[in-house]
From TrEMBL:
This is GNAT superfamily N-acetyltransferase. Residues 85-192 form the N-acetyltransferase domain. SUPFAM superfamilies: Acyl-CoA N-acyltransferases (Nat). Gene3D superfamilies: 3.40.630.30. PROSITE patterns: GNAT (PS51186). InterPro entries: Acyl_CoA_acyltransferase, GNAT_dom.
Length: 194
């Protein structure tokens, strides 16, 4: 695997570069068949923008590889010199049960997480998952939530997702059959300890 520059997660709501981040997210593309694992990027982003419990973030990176992504997602539209939007995700509070977790509030749900097809396999997914734990921890502190970690559901056939999450320190907490896209693994990681 390549060693990419560190990713930066930028919350979309309230960001000075809000519209530029949205333009980058609108340009994200999946590989054929991958929408079954996650859904289409733009509709998920729109749904998050309309729901105060869903905290939408852009995954940005600054390597040359990232900047080969199509024009709308290049540095000019991604809100930072030399940085490109390479992915997105949503931290959904009070929604753990959506992924088969035992309750809604002891973990923040990471959903709608994806890396653009042109930037996959470069380590961004692993780095962004790790960074999402820190972002979720900040949200929990800011909103005074009882959450102590991050939970997610990943399709059992999603090899890249399973590996990225395991590399980022997520542990398997069993199977969930309630999702709309086939059997899922429930994966969880506690927040960073100070
Ligand atoms: C899952 C996803 C976010 C991973 O992002 P990524 O940037 O490609 O991940 P990384 O580059 O950090 O690679 C993570 C691991 O997956 C492996 N991997 C990458 N693409 C793979 C593929 N198509 N098949 C199998 N393994 C793959 C990598 O080799 C790496 O494992 P290794 O370090 O042990 O070799 C990305 O593939 C994606 O957006 N997929 C479509 C949407 C999706 O499935 N989202 C998750 C929903 S839960």
């Amino acid at each position: 695997m390549h060693t990419p520059a560190a990713v930066t997660l930028l919350p979309v709501n309230g960001a000075p570069e809000h519209s530029k981040l949205l333009a980058g997210i609108a340009a994200l593309e999946l590989m054929p068949g991958q929408a079954a694992f996650v859904g289409e990027p733009w509709p998920m982003a729109q749904k998050a923008l309309a729901d105060p419990h869903r905290h939408l973030f852009a995954v940005t990176a600054g390597t040359a590889a990232a900047c080969t992504i199509a024009a709308p997602a290049t540095a000019e539209t991604s809100g930072g010199a030399g940085r490109a939007v390479v992915g997105m995700g949503i931290l959904h509070v009070n929604a753990g049960r959506d992924a088969g977790w035992a309750d809604n509030d002891s973990a923040i749900l990471l959903r709608g997480f994806l890396i653009d097809r042109r930037a996959q396999g470069l380590g961004y997914g692993t780095a962004a998952t790790e960074a999402a734990v820190g972002l979720a921890q900040g949200i929990a502190a800011e909103l005074d939530l009882p959450a102590e970690g991050v939970v997610l559901g990943v399709n059992e056939d999603n090899a890249a997702g399973l590996r990225a999450y395991a590399h980022a320190g997520f542990a398997d907490h069993g199977r969930y059959l309630g999702g709309r896209s086939g059997p899922q693994r429930i994966m969880y990681r506690t927040f960073h300890t100070p």
